[in-house]
Amino acid sequence: MNKVDVVLGSFYGDEGKGKIIDYLSQNADISVRCTGGNNAGHSIEIDGKKFAFHLIPSGILNKGTTAIIGNGVVVDPKVLIEEMENIKANGYSVENLKISDKAHVIFPYHVQMDKLQEELRKRDKIGTTARGIGPVYCDKFERCGIRMGELVNKKFEKNLRRNIENKNELFKIYNYELIDADEVIKQYNEYADYLKEYVVDTITLMHNAINQDKKILCEGAQATLLDIDFGSYPYVTSSNPTIGGICTGSGIGAKYIGEVYGVLKAYSSRVGEGPYLTEQNNDIGDTIRELGHEYGTTTKRPRRCGWLDLVALKYATMVNGLTGLAINHVDTIGKLDKIKLCVGYKKDEKVTMDFSTDEEYLANCEPIYEEFEGNFGDISNCKTREELPENAKVYLNRIEEIVKVPIKFIGTGAGRENMIVC
Ligand code: IMO
Ligand code: MG
What we know:
Blueprint: E1 4-9, H1 17-25, E2 30-33, E3 42-46, E4 49-53, E5 66-69, E6 74-75, H2 77-89, E7 97-100, E8 104-105, H3 108-120, H4 133-142, H5 148-152, H6 157-173, H7 181-195, E9 199-200, H8 202-211, E10 216-219, H9 243-248, E11 257-265, E12 268-270, H10 283-291, E13 304-306, E14 308-309, H11 310-320, E15 324-328, H12 330-333, E16 338-347, E17 350-352, H13 359-363, E18 365-373, H14 390-403, E19 407-411, E20 419-421
Parallel strand pairs: 1-10, 1-11, 2-5, 2-10, 5-7, 6-8, 7-9, 11-15, 14-16, 15-19
Antiparallel strand pairs: 3-4, 12-13, 16-17, 16-18, 19-20
Helix pairs in contact: 3-4
The chain binds 6-O-phosphoryl inosine monophosphate and magnesium ion.
């Protein structure tokens, strides 16, 4: 491990970042989440026990690892406390959890605003997770947000009252339930008492660790094509889940970063609305969904499924400077007889590898597929890439050949042990 290694999503989220993070964090002194909030859902399976993480870095399950919620994260204290209690109930400790005093806090009006905004978009819905993510980032940038430091030091009442007063004006117009400031203040004072001991200046903490040659793992949430700048705007989340967000969301300078792993699946999926060129809105997509259990960890929504798109992957490689790929669900795709791989787009009768998130551009592109043999059989016990069946090797080699980034991890099943480290 370098001083700081990073794990990022390459497509539309849900690539199985949790699995790679779980493996890498076993050697990390610090595991940090930098962006997003409880719109993320990272599930990992340990000894047959399933854990779903939304906010806390999953590195918390390793005894020696400090888990940090960075300044770029938005925190719903209710969800955070539930997650902490759940970890404790499963026999693990949350002693090593640290929360940035600069992380912004989600309040009930953010969640209600998220729902209202979706309703107002009518037919142009984004399909958000309705967790208040967009509205809390709006407040952060409008400079009226409340941060964890103010929350736990109980210096938030005045600002909160003003915010609630303003939001209620809007809720009144649309006949939404009004937020009761006294009730929210009472509730959040209780959260503050519970969380106070965990809130610190995480930036200093991390830099002290870097100076002591400690290893840091940055756990990306969401993914490249959901990025507010690089994703398919407006069908994106309200943060930068790409490499830049790692720096601004943690306070770690770029010079400390070593490996940047891009996680993907051997096929693709997307939740919510927005363009998706290799989507298979047919029997194939349905089959992939069932085989890969492609239902949301956060919202339980069925995910849209399709083939792997290497044009989009090249784009993710480019904007993040990926140094390695982690490819999950190779076992899943291997259950099909035939597999397709998008190796280019046809646009105006020409072949291109240029990706754009522009809807009009994509509307004029048609995926070009190569077909591969499936039927990989049971690969869950393969421990090296060499041991994989020929069909799997051919498929993976082709991905590497086109994208020109080495595959470093291969997911061969759901369990912690079902992974090849190349
Ligand atoms: P992980 O970390 C998949 C999607 C939502 C919606 C859009 C905006 O599990 O990969 P938001 O609530 O963020 O304002 O919704 O972004 N989205 C995700 N999709 N995985 C995620 O996280 C996601 N986080 C947000 O479905 O389309
Ligand atoms: Mg998810």
